Amino acid sequence: MHSNATDRAQANVRERLASSEVILHKFDLIVLGGGSGGLATAQRAAEYGARVALFEPGRLGGTCVNVGCVPKKIMWNAAELAGGFPRARDYGFDVRVAGHDWARLKAGRDAYVQRLNGIYQRNLDRKAIATIRSAARFSGPRAIVDAHGDAYAAEHVVIATGGYALVPPLPGAELGITSDGFFELEHRPRRVAIVGSGYVAVELGGVFRALGTETVLFVRGERLLREFDSLLAEQLAKQMRAAGVEIVTHGLPSAVNGAAGDLTIEMPDGRSFFGFETLLWAIGRSPRTASLGLERAGVEIDAAAAVVVDAFQNTTAEKTYAIGDVTGRALLTPVAIAAGRRLADRVFGGQTDRHLSYDLLPTVVFSHPPIGTVGLSEAAARERFAGEPIKVYQTEFVPMYYALGEVKAQTAMKLVTVGADEKIVGCHVIGPGADEMIQGFAVALTMGARKRDLDDTLAIHPTSAEEMVTMR
User: Fold this and answer.
1) Helix, strand, coil % (nearest 5) of the chain?
2) Number of DSSP helices (H) and strands (E) in the chain, helices first
3) Residues 6+ apart with CB under 8 A from 319
4) The dihedral of CA 422, 427, 432, 433: what is its sign?
5) Strand partners, 137
């Protein structure tokens, strides 16, 4: 059942369409974008009693829910199951797998996402947040016009329009797809090329390979995950290659030839790679700012089209803020949510100093195997704390999951410490369970843990996680 605020907003739109008159809708807060960050901001503000309107022309939940984290995790789960069948035989099970039904998996995944879309709408309705299912643009400072020409104004405006996947400007690039297109695939391609070395490239590459697709990763430089600790990148490349993924280094394409279903990728040095049914671009994302009319609101953007913000998410325009991917900082769903909630706490909850610190951000890469990391890489720590003592603790071992059978994949861990008291500034792990393991260690680092704090923590045996508190 829709809230009164939602009903009024929708009635006003109908009235405007019937009368061709411009109507001014006034709110305490307008949020542009119904992704994770926008939803979190709107709902937290409403909990403080603010009258809120949220603009979203697409499906609620944004990239994460619709073409990102959520459906990706379902595909990762499927890939994990595929990888578990051989291990089941190691443990004495008589397992026969007749095949995999990609279309059935897609249908179930899409239905789950659709249910989430409905849950988000009901949550907005319960909090009396007016949902305007329209694109929006600024007509002036804190003044908005929707696609129908209706006018809106608010004391505060939050820009949370997210970003979009990039396609490079080279001949034939349009023959490829992005991560959005991955979730539209009706069948599993026989052979796929993925261009990129970050989250999306390694995650989708792992899914494709585990489910049976011949997979080739084209990496611009020498390594995967350039922003991560070198231990993680090296171990991931080793284990992806062992799983059958081909990794082509210095593989930045200059052109794509052929037709859909039979693509050839050309390299500047004359190399050619043939026979790809699908090409997926995973080369980064760009902020979605072009259509917002930011100049009319006095909101500045940088050279990458990202909205410029300070530590408190303030833009260059008074009482106008930006959060999430549209700012070009730490493109992670939990970051957008945390920044949005803290912003609402500050603006509507009276918590004047409330803001998100970007110094210590835990994250997981759902690769195969998964990666969990929080804090600085070893290289970044040595750069930031130049002149201070840096001590690194590292271990590599075969987890008990592989105790039986011939496969002996390694788990690797690293702690990076600074100073005489060995404050932990980086914690990195790759291996089974890393995705669930890192959250607890993120709490410890956020609280300022030293190496001795981990040394004094009782180990839980037998687990992989115990190695984190027993490293010498």
Assistant:
1) 35, 25, 40
2) 13, 21
3) 142, 155, 156, 157
4) positive
5) 145
Same domain, 35 and 52: yes
Same domain flag for 397 and 311: no
Chain CA centroid to CA 22, Å:
39
> The dihedral of CA 174, 61, 348, 51: what is its sign?
positive
195: amino acid identity, one letter: V
User: Are the beta carbons of 16 and 145 closer than 8 angstroms?
Assistant: no
Q: Which of 2, 355, 428, 461 is catalytic?
A: 461
Helix (H) or strand (E) holding 179: helix 179-182
156 catalytic residue (yes or no):
no
Q: How far apart are CA 472 and CA 392, in angstroms?
A: 10
**Cα 171 to the chain's mean position, in Å?**
28
Q: What is the pLDDT of residues 375-397, one digit of tens each?
A: 999 999 999 999 999 999 999 99
Output the six-digit token pair for 441.
């260690």
User: How does pLDDT run across 37-93, given as a tens digit for each residue?
Assistant: 999 999 999 999 999 999 999 999 999 999 999 999 999 999 999 999 999 999 999
pTM as predicted: 0.93
Domain, as residue range, for 43 = 4-65+105-164+286-349
- With CA atoms as reference, report the closest residue to 401 among 369, 364, 366, 438: 369
> In this structure, are 241 and 181 located in the same domain?
yes
Identify whether the C-beta of residue 238 lies closer than 8 Å to the C-beta of residue 245.
no
CA 113 to chain centre: 16
